[in-house]
Design brief:
The complex is a heterodimer of chains A (71) and B (462). Chain A has 71 residues and is mostly helical. Chain A has two helices and one strand. Chain B contains 20 helices and two strands. The chains are: A mainly alpha (71), B mainly alpha (462). Chains A and B meet through strand 1, helix 1 and helix 2 of A and strand 1, strand 2, helix 1, helix 6 and helix 7 of B.
């Protein structure tokens, strides 16, 4: 690969170490690339919605019961 | 000279196709990984042990971190209310559930090099991402409050005033961050977490009946009666071992540590060792308070009250160790939970998020970490607040929030596009599905107990 190295402040030894020891997608700059979006299938969507509604309902129950207990 | 002393160093490698900026965080992580690579080249037993030492951390921290203030109180209440019996093997089983779930986060972090919050946001979109973040933020903040309640109560046993107790905890939390190096932070926190094992000598001081312990482990007996109280303890003990912050923390810590797919086996050992140590401490807490069974009603006891009640059975030294154990549990959990919040915030806000960052480059990361801890600590000092409300709900909220979190974990860890050939095996998926079913069923039973409080008494009579 035709590449150019620009030194700002880092030492070449450190840079070589980074490029030798880290996998490309471990680099901070590589992580700026987002992971591609995936659409949830119909069954998955139904499951996550069901669990979301379950959580909201149960949280109301818990907070209500704890409030009664405290009072 | 270490990389940590040169925060401003940056270098660009430019090519025709892309540009790579090597940051301070990359350099620090590369130094850690270079040691791992060197250890991996060795074939002797000593080099394998050194490699294991280098790669352990996130698993032990997450498991001992989850043995936090409310969890240890839950185990103490279990021992005091039910003695030696069903709950000893049950608590060990809950740690087995935690291993199944946490192993998936190691696999996911090592394969994708992304945190849990980041992956949910990017893979499934901000709509589901925000739901997960709200669950995490509420759960983490409530739990952090309970950690400071435990610290305040534990140090209160020694006559230390609440403001001083809270300051001591914050001082430990901030000192762990001083090095701005993940490796140092991890080792300091591991040393602090090791004190969780203090519950084992306390249990020995209570002179447990080992025959009864062995019988309980084999037969799961004596069984507790089927009642609302039993259900609350079941839920609290489950919430004491599996909670959403653990998923976010271990995945982010795996990424920050720089682990790759080659390290998954060691990550699994790390998680198993952590679960074993945490289970030993949890059983220790149950055995330590078992002498209270039948003597005292420990309902809504706090850390200091347990320590005081135990004095006639285990002496002043034993009671002091018990109180210190509660303080340690609160401090380590406040470190890991506030770090998990900071990681998640950074991942979602696309701000730098690593314990390898100098303060100058990671202002928002350290600000979130510090503010979460300071706010929770401050709330504990406000007189007249119904803090018992928080203690009552925190473990139950954790159990309820787990199934939705686990479904996303399950979807991600089975996603061929991001898992690079290390997606979860079928048997692990079956176990994870079983964990989701158990947690959801526990939540539903709890709901029934609230809506129809006499239902379990009626069922118990059948």
């Amino acid at each position: 690969m035709d590449s150019k190295v620009e030194h700002e402040h880092a030492s070449l030894a450190d840079t070589s170490l980074v490029l030798e020891t880290l996998e490309h997608d471990q680099l901070v700059s590589a992580k700026r690339e987002p992971v591609p979006r995936r659409r949830l299938k119909r069954g998955e969507l139904a499951l996550v919605w069901a669990l979301r509604l379950y959580l909201v309902f149960m949280l109301v129950v818990v907070f209500w019961q704890a409030w009664i207990a405290v009072r | 000279m270490s990389a940590g002393a040169q925060p401003e160093r940056r270098l660009r490698v430019l090519s025709a196709d892309d540009e790579v900026v090597v940051t301070h965080e990359d350099i620090d992580r590369a130094h850690d990984r270079a040691r791992v690579s060197a250890a991996r080249r060795g074939r002797t037993l000593r080099s394998r042990a050194w490699l294991l030492w280098l790669l352990i951390g996130p698993g032990i921290l997450v498991m001992l971190g989850e043995n936090d203030g409310p969890s240890m109180l839950s185990y103490a209440a279990t021992g005091a209310k039910f003695g030696v019996g069903f709950f000893i093997p049950f608590v060990i089983l809950t740690f087995g559930m935690a291993v199944v779930v946490q192993e998936m986060t190691v696999r996911l972090g090592a394969a994708t090099h992304r945190g849990h919050a980041e992956l949910i946001f990017e893979r499934f979109g901000p709509f589901w991402g925000w739901f997960s973040m709200i669950d995490l933020a509420i759960g983490n903040f409530l739990t952090l409050i309970t950690e400071f309640i435990a610290i305040r109560a534990g140090l209160g046993f020694f006559g230390i005033p609440p403001w001083a107790a809270v300051l001591v905890a914050l001082a430990v939390l901030f000192s762990a961050l001083l090095s701005h190096r993940y490796w140092t932070w991890e080792r300091v926190t591991l040393v602090a977490a090791a004190f969780n094992l203090i519950f084992i000598p306390v249990a020995l001081m209570a002179h447990p009946h080992w025959g009864a312990v062995g019988h309980a482990l084999v037969s799961w007996k004596p069984l507790p009666g089927f009642s609302n109280d039993t259900l609350m303890i079941v839920l609290s003990d489950i919430g004491a071992t599996v909670t959403p912050w653990m998923l976010f923390f271990q995945q982010s810590a795996t990424v920050d540590k720089g682990m790759t797919t080659k390290d998954i086996r060691f990550g699994r050992i790390d998680t198993l060792v952590g679960a074993g140590l945490a289970a030993a401490a949890a059983v220790g807490a149950i055995l330590a308070t078992a002498p209270l069974f039948g003597h005292i009603s420990a309902e809504n006891f706090q850390a200091a009250q347990f320590a005081q009640a135990l004095q006639p059975f285990i002496g002043h030294i034993g009671a002091s160790l018990f109180a210190l154990g509660m303080v340690e549990a609160g401090i380590v959990a406040s470190i890991t939970i506030s770090t998990s919040s900071a990681y998640a915030f950074g991942e979602v806000a696309q701000r730098p998020h690593s314990l390898n960052l100098p303060v100058k480059e990671g202002k928002s990361f350290y600000a979130v970490l510090g503010l979460c801890a300071a706010a929770a600590a401050g709330i504990v000092l406000i007189p007249g607040l119904p803090l018992v409300f928080v203690v009552l709900v925190v473990n139950v909220v954790a159990v309820l929030a787990m199934p939705p979190a686990l479904v996303f974990l399950y979807l991600l860890v089975n996603d061929k596009q991001i898992m690079e050939g290390v997606k979860s095996p079928a048997w692990m998926n079956a176990l994870a599905a079983a964990v989701v079913v158990v947690l959801t069923a526990a939540g539903v039973l709890y709901g029934i107990s609230v809506v129809a409080p006499n239902a379990f008494a009626w069922m118990g009579r059948l």
